[in-house]
Structures are given as structure tokens and as C-alpha cells.
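User: Show me a protein chain along with its predicted structure.
Assistant: Here is one chain, sequence first, then C-alpha cells.
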Amino acid sequence: MSINRVMISGNLTRDAELRSTQSGTSMLGMGIAVNDRRKNQKTGEWEDYPNFVDCTMFGTRAEKLQPYLTKGTKVAIEGKLSYRSWEKDGQRRSKLEVIVDEIEFMSSKQGGAVQDLHTGPALDATEQVYDEDIPF
């Protein structure tokens, strides 16, 4: 038995990009910067070192959330790791990414500025996104 669960939080590095698979399923790609703190051995100061993680979300929820997932937005993501490889221009390429199962907004963009949800008004995306998914 193995466990494949990932939980990260960080800021989006770019606006989420909506595409479709060959079968027509919506696919939303985004990048998240997750900081790792380490003590600099020379200066003794703590420094942030960013890790850049590619994430993908599928389905109707991906379509509905895309307008809200803009560069700089702070999010928390839960999902699973996925490895894929392909060949491009005669070279073998590979990628490790997170397939998103759950996403939570930790900030909102209002008036072009990113606001922390704990200090500013909350983004009311849940009503618009989830009402259509409820079958009753």
C-alpha cells in the first residue's frame, strides 16, 4: 500500500490557463510558488527559497474557477502527484505535477490588488461554482 496525497499552499505564478483534452474534458493548468525557509549558514539569517509546482485541475469546476485563479492569488491545494513523460523534438521530457482534487482561496483580487481573505472581503466564488454541480 502507498499513499499519494499532496497538500500545499502558495501564490499562483501565472494566470490559470484553460485548455481541453482530445476527448473534450476541460483542463486547467496553473503554477504555484511554495516557499521553503532555510537558515543561511554564512549570515545566520532565515531565507525563503521558492519551489515552483505545476498543478492541473479537470472538469466543470476547472472552467468555473478559471477567472478567479489569477497571478498572485494565494491558494491551498490538495491533490495527488502525477508523473508523465513524452517526446518532443527527439528529446525525452518528463514532468511531476499535482492533480488538484480540492482548492481553497486564501486571498482574493479586488480592484487589481490581492487581499488576504482574513482581512478583506471574501470572494463569493462558491455560490457561482457549486450551485450548478448539486443534483438536487
